[in-house]
Design goal:
Blueprint: E1 5-9, E2 17-22, E3 28-35, H1 37-47, E4 51-55, H2 68-75, H3 95-109, E5 123-126, H4 129-137, H5 147-157, H6 167-184, E6 189-191, E7 199-201, H7 246-257, H8 262-270
């Protein structure tokens, strides 16, 4: 049973956090920019999500220049800011990470412990919206692609409905979508060392050679990872075409549309459903 998901794009003290709640049908039912930590807890109490997906490291690294999860992402061609050790975290740039670590502690106290292995039930996960977008598309963004446009297009192709405000809201929506997908997939990809925190990708596997920068021509639809053929946008297990029961939904919809033209009739005939 898939429940709603709260996505949090973490900001510093001045910018605040951006929040988006997606219901199981991938509709934005709540969004709030420039939120304070208490607003995050308020959203949890109001919407009772199954997953809280936070775009921030939950812990400092164990010693070194970065965490294992960031090095594994880099091997895939996905680059992010390295998380320092606690001793190196005093620089002003890392204050937003400190706010994120505090937020993970707050949501854990609210009943959402950090998930680093794929546990069930209410939990919090670390996400990286750029990595989520790459996993959904199956490739790195095309050269010179506009970041927001590319990410928003992926959200719409994945069936996310509702208004998206500033760019940080797009990232919060990608975080929330990750929280839905990890509930739908038979397993997700957890990269890194659980003692430092792991970034979760909404994919059952990742390419051994890393993600390529595939071209995307104008008008092309980005490839989504194992998307249901009925058009709902939900992920399916590898080797399947439909979420359970959604083939019947597509058939019913096509039958109802036959009177409106030949396209639906042709699709019914192609599938042998006449």
């Amino acid at each position: 049973m898939v429940g709603s998901s709260l996505g949090v794009d973490v900001g510093g003290d001045h910018k605040g956090h951006d929040l988006v709640v997606l219901d199981p049908d991938r509709t934005i039912v709540f969004a709030k920019p420039r939120a304070k930590p208490d607003d995050v807890i308020g959203a949890i109490e109001a919407w009772k999500p199954v997953v809280v997906a936070i775009d921030s490291p939950p812990r400092w690294n164990r010693g070194g220049r970065s965490r294992l999860t960031e090095r594994e992402l880099a091997r895939l061609g996905v680059h992010t800011f390295p998380t320092p050790s606690a001793a190196g975290s005093e620089h002003a740039f890392f204050r937003w990470m400190a706010r994120g670590i505090e937020l993970f502690e707050m949501v854990a106290n609210a009943g959402y412990p950090l998930d680093t292995t794929g546990r069930k039930g209410r939990r919090a996960i670390e996400v990286f919206p750029h990595a989520t977008a790459v996993a959904l598309a199956g490739h790195l963004p095309p050269a010179r692609a506009r970041k927001r446009e590319w990410r928003e297009r992926l959200l719409r192709s994945a069936g996310v409905r509702g208004d998206l405000g500033r760019a940080d809201q797009v990232d919060a929506a990608l975080a929330a979508l990750t929280g839905l997908l990890v509930q739908e997939l038979p397993r997700a990809t957890y990269l890194g060392d659980p003692t430092e925190g792991v970034i979760v990708l909404p994919a059952t596997s990742v390419p051994s050679a890393g993600y390529a920068r595939a071209p995307l021509r104008a008008g092309d639809q980005p490839h989504l990872f194992d998307a249901c053929a009925c058009g709902c946008g939900r992920a399916v297990a590898p080797g399947r075409e439909f979420v359970h029961g959604h083939d019947a939904k597509l058939r019913s919809r096509l039958v109802g549309a036959v009177r409106e033209g030949d396209a639906a009739r042709s699709e019914l005939e192609r599938r042998g459903w006449t």
